């Protein structure tokens, strides 16, 4: 029951959603660790090129000289 509630909350909670209209040379970046991603087939007859990038570190850091 709790899982069903959470999934419905995510799916219907418009304040948590991002809708992106693709344009030529557009770039979109999201963090899959904190995102429920659902791609919509809304770009025919065009093509989409996707590249998955995974960072090696879990915690951001800055190396001081």
UniProtKB/TrEMBL annotation:
Keywords, sorted A to Z: Dioxygenase, Iron, Metal-binding, Oxidoreductase
GO cellular component: cytoplasm
Gene3D superfamilies named among the record's database cross-references: Clavaminate synthase-like
Top-level division of the source organism's lineage: Eukaryota
Cross-referenced Pfam families: TauD
PANTHER family from the UniProt entry: ALPHA-KETOGLUTARATE-DEPENDENT SULFONATE DIOXYGENASE
Protein name: TauD/TfdA-like domain-containing protein
Organism per entry: Phytophthora kernoviae
